Amino acid sequence: MHRKLLLRLIDAEYAITRLNIGSQIPEWLAGPGFWAAICSREELTLVCRAARVPSSVQSSLGWRCFRIEQHFAFDAPGVLSSVVSPLSSAGVGVFANSTFSTDYVFILGSDLDKALTALKASGHEIMV
């Protein structure tokens, strides 16, 4: 099911970083804006505003973030797909994170114009 969503483009550049498994969560991670620590058996992935990440940390820089502004039931189907599908069709790669209440979709800043066009063409409203 395709939903028409209200998306907010967060006014900040984000970084997606990789630390070795078993690493401690660094003090610089927490701060203003969205941030997350995701641990898998292979690595510890951190997401936060790029300005906080030390240059010595393995990172992918230049990411922009869309936040889904509506709140849906935790198990509501199709919410994230409504954003990811038009981006994928436009050739825009994504890195998605979900919280209990909403979803955050990260795209490379170099794809921002293409992403905005695709999302608006799908009927989404973008707040900047």
UniProtKB/TrEMBL annotation:
The organism's place on the tree of life at top rank: Bacteria
Domain CASTOR ACT: 61-120
Domain A9CJY8-like N-terminal: from-to ranges: 13-55
The protein's name in its UniProt record: Amino acid-binding protein
Organism (species): Xaviernesmea oryzae
